């Protein structure tokens, strides 16, 4: 590589970082498939593979003139103050330490970002990321750009300044410079399940991070890139990429393939039920490694084996040992002598700042019990950008906040054309989470590891198309590990039919969880209890009789009954009062809502 050269140029042009997609397990927008929601710095396609708690990569709208009752901040409002000591006596430099540049021109005038860019170019040089060559005839080079991010700790203090060189992968053409792009990441249900098991078995949760992870991926296609800004190179030359540079469509897949092959050489195998869960069993014990792009959790009872694994990974990749897990994918994980506490308090606080909710007004529930939103309510928003940003961030907040899953499921159905009443509903959700800022999940060492589930449906609850809503939740012992609020794909002709479809969806998740937990060393030799408050649906599952009232759901009937007969599922009828999944199917008045929240075992502070 040529010598790095970062000239100082005047600040001028700006660009807006493209957002990426993240798939979540726990909330649905109303379609039969999982939604694709916008989340800042999603790991698969963004320049930075580590999801930050809440970053400014979501571009502020150019204007937002619609006025609602609740106050909104100006798009030019300053970000939340980061507590970090001044690095210089110069006031302009002190201000710039808290600002993320939007262009190379802007960043090159700041020595902090100059150093970050030099470190990135040095890392690219160390991994032999490209060779400088002549562009072959018939080939078209893609461009590149710099992306800048201030990495913060869970308390808001600055950890480091990060500059990432990203290829403009949107210019790639399928079949020419890329083919397959899918790369698995661990499901968030798997993360919660592993933490719950580690708490009961009193295992330490270790966290490691791979530096410049994608640059370890081997590139098999011919990809040419124009030299990046600030890079000293001969004229009329291009970079022939040897490594999967960030931004390339195939980069996540190449990195996962490289890591998977490497870790299997150390005696690990991949779970069939979560490809990002790697397991090693030996006479010394068992080790689990859960990978989410470049972040990993390592746990198990083989402490010597874990130390050997860390040493092995350090030899294969440039690693950072973060010790006991404390901040993973934007989740704040606090450990006590008898368990783990998961919350997203900082993420929530930053989200409230972004929304401009700075007063003390809160709401007792996420939605009014009488709320029935439709696509034609209110007046159209002149700019839907802020609405989509807030709802996308609320979707990620449901990772530790099942109490808002139904409300977020409702407002996420209006992303394409939000209106004033929809925005009012979003603000109410935000005011509810403001009053419950430290709500989170707790996994105690004193819990059992017995799996059981609740399934419920709200028949014809959608006022627009009269489709029903499925809600379910799963407990591992006393604590919640999986839940969902989802609109059913078809209109049900009776409440029994709606409930039965909900049971079918719940059974599907139940079977997958049993398989996953078996891989994690938790074997359920008896049937898993599935609670339902509709006796007719329970009777249909127990009785092998088909007639005119059930022939249109015959496939669901066969599916559920098959697992009932096999002894995987035991349907249990419960009263509506004891139906915990009711919180995922409809809005409730404060008394009933808080009763259901208590059943979910949410805590608002670390248990004494």
UniProtKB/TrEMBL annotation:
Comp. bias regions, Low complexity: 68-90
UniProt-listed SUPFAM superfamilies: DNA/RNA polymerases
InterPro entries referenced in this protein's UniProt entry, alphabetically: DNA/RNA_pol_sf (IPR043502), RVT_2 (IPR013103)
Residue numbers spanned by region Disordered: 65-112
Superkingdom in the source lineage: Eukaryota
Domain (Reverse transcriptase Ty1/copia-type) ranges: 128-368
Classification via CDD domains: RNase_HI_RT_Ty1 (cd09272)
Identification of the protein by name: Reverse transcriptase Ty1/copia-type domain-containing protein
Species of the source: Rhododendron griersonianum
Upper lineage: Eukaryota, Viridiplantae, Streptophyta, Embryophyta, Tracheophyta
